[in-house]
Specification:
Elements lengths: L13 H10 L4 H14 L8 H14 L1 H19 L9 E4 L8 E6 L2 E8 L10 E7 L5 E7 L5 E3 L17 E11 L4 H4 L2 H30 L4 H29 L5 H30 L2 H5 L1 H13 L5 H13 L7
Parallel strand pairs: 1-4
Antiparallel strand pairs: 2-3, 3-7, 4-5, 5-7, 6-7
Helix pairs in contact: 1-3, 2-4, 3-4, 3-6, 4-6, 6-7, 6-8, 6-10, 7-8, 8-11
Protein name: Acyl-CoA dehydrogenase
GO molecular function: oxidoreductase activity, acting on the CH-CH group of donors
């Protein structure tokens, strides 16, 4: 068994998916080919099969986090386009919605159509994808999502900005856009306000969980190679607890999404809780794995060393204490107190 199973009723071939993802060896080109195939059968969040989708994402991440990092935003883009009732999108897609100080992408309506100009940060595989959903500031003060053809000459990568050791093959540097034609997707501020924004964030957490499962399996291999002492058994116990709590919140959240109980502010709070629990579990397993196995696998095993570096970068999509503070503010406003 190589797939990551959380108990979904839907019968996806997770073992086969794992083998395909693992065989890619972290190649973004191979991952993009696989993304096209996975997009044909992966369920959409909120469709009644959310847990099956998250099993799919976790399986990809357990096999290879680089592959998961390529495919997850493609599936997220397809879900967003479906939510916006955009028919039959073609090609490979990304979602570029991050902001950073000192950069701004501006949308203007000119001569009967929208154009985007400026710099957009965190554009993963911006030079390899066919299209992307990109958020930009609009003249009325909000932000809006747009579909953009990334093959245009007026879309230019900023060279030399991606030096990461984790997810090294997934260049996520900025793009410069110069009056690039764009098609609006949803109304102003729809992208951030829709229910699927929270659901997509929990899909990313499923990838973090899968990456942690991959690390846990490597620790288990070590434990079975030689009989563990009490400290080794303690490591396994800690890993089991960390994975159990992460799996539990993912399963509960998937049910809430499919039951219509994860909408609006409640959906946002649920996503914040789930992401925090999963990232805490992943961080604990990163630490326990290092203690359990020492430096050997980190310096001698390409797959393990890359998995550790990839997961360390990937989980930083969670904003640590700042996300906890945002959740705290949301909880403080509740009446009655939720616990």
């Amino acid at each position: 068994m190589t797939g990551v199973f959380l108990g979904a009723a839907d019968a996806l071939d997770l073992d086969g998916l794992y083998r395909e993802a693992h065989a890619s060896g972290g190649s973004p080109a191979d991952a993009l080919v696989l993304a096209g195939r996975v997009g044909l059968f992966a369920p959409r969040p909120g469709s009644g099969s959310t847990l099956a989708l998250w099993e799919c994402l976790a399986t990809l991440a357990a096999a290879d986090l680089t592959v998961a990092r390529v495919i997850e935003p493609h599936l997220d883009a397809l879900a967003i386009l479906a939510e916006a009732r955009v028919p039959d999108p073609e090609g490979t897609w990304g979602v570029f919605a991050a902001e950073s100080p000192g950069t701004r992408l501006q949308a203007e309506y000119d001569d009967g159509g929208w154009v985007l100009s400026g710099r957009k940060p965190w554009c993963s595989l911006g030079t390899r994808l066919d299209r992307a959903l990109i958020t930009a500031h609009v003249p009325t003060g909000g932000r809006r999502a747009f579909a953009v053809d990334l093959s245009r000459d007026s879309v230019r990568p900023v060279a030399g900005t991606w030096v990461s050791r984790g997810l090294a093959a997934v260049d996520s540097g900025p793009l410069d856009l110069l009056r690039v034609p764009a098609e609006p997707v949803g109304d102003e501020n729809w992208y951030l306000a829709r229910d699927g924004f929270a659901w997509g964030g929990m899909g990313v957490a499923a990838c973090w969980y899968g990456g942690a499962v991959g690390l846990a399996r490597r620790v288990m291999e070590t434990a079975r190679e030689r009989e563990p002492d009490q400290i080794g058994l303690m490591h396994l116990g800690a890993i089991d607890v960390a994975l159990h709590r992460a799996a539990a919140v993912l399963k509960d959240a998937a049910q809430a999404v499919d039951n219509g109980e994860a909408k609006g502010k409640e959906g946002a709070r649920l996503a914040a809780r789930v992401r925090s629990v999963v990232v805490q579990s992943a961080e604990e397993i990163l630490s326990v794995a290092a203690h359990a196995m020492g430096p050997g696998p980190l310096v001698h095993e390409e797959e393990h060393a890359r998995r550790v570096a990839d997961l360390q970068v990937y989980i930083r999509q969670h904003h640590a204490e700042r996300d906890s503070a945002s959740l705290g503010a949301a909880v403080l406003s509740l009446d009655p107190v939720p616990w």
